[in-house]
């Protein structure tokens, strides 16, 4: 399971509201975090930097778009990382109300 999960996380791509498709693997998430810090340090909310998209095209991005991409990537990773528990179907006895007797057939 861990090997399959690692492969799936490495293949994460996400699409921002602007339509840009980012790599969302763990290394890319770390790069996004560092770029967000750097862009934010400029004090200019419109500051941009070149970013290589999942298809290898270069795009100017803002800290806001990188933040969106990082959050979406983290959510995608979390969905892969945390497996939903297996829930067994309840038996009729388990869902019957306690203290309520079933009517007898033909009664």
SSE layout and pairing:
Layout: H1 2-10, E1 13-15, E2 21-23, H2 26-41, E3 48-52, E4 58-62, H3 63-81, H4 92-95
Antiparallel strand pairs: 1-2, 3-4
Helix pairs in contact: 2-3
Can you offer a commentary on this structure?
- With 107 residues, this protein is an alpha+beta fold.
- The protein has helices at residues 2-10, 26-41, 63-81, 92-95; strands at residues 13-15, 21-23, 48-52, 58-62.
- It has a two-stranded antiparallel sheet with strand order 1-2. It has a two-stranded antiparallel sheet with strand order 3-4.
- Strand 3 and strand 4 form a beta hairpin.
- The mean pLDDT is 85.
Which key phrases capture this entry?
107 residues, alpha+beta, two-stranded antiparallel ribbon, 4 helices, 45% helix, 15% strand
Mean pLDDT: 85
* Strand order in the largest sheet: 1-2
Helix vs. strand class: alpha+beta
Q: What's the main sheet like?
A: 2 strands, antiparallel
What fraction, in percent, of the residue positions are helical?
Answer: 40-55%
Distance between the termini: 53 Å
Q: Please indicate the percent range of residues in DSSP E strands (runs of 2 or more).
A: 5-15%
The tally of helices reads 4
Order of helices and strands: HEEHEEHH
Oligomer type: single chain
**Rg, Å, rounded:** 24 Å
Short overview:
With 107 residues, the protein is of the alpha+beta class.
